[in-house]
Amino acid sequence: MKLKSFVLSSLFLAIGFLLHQITPPFLFGMKPDFLLIMMFISIFLVDDHKLTTIVGIVSGILTAATTTFPGGQIPNLIDKIITCQVVYMLFKILKNRVNNNITIILVSFIGTFISGLVFLYSALIIVGLPVSFMTLLVAVVLPATLLNSVVSFFLFRLVNNALRYSMGN
Question: What is the pTM assigned to this prediction?
Answer without folding.
Answer: 0.92
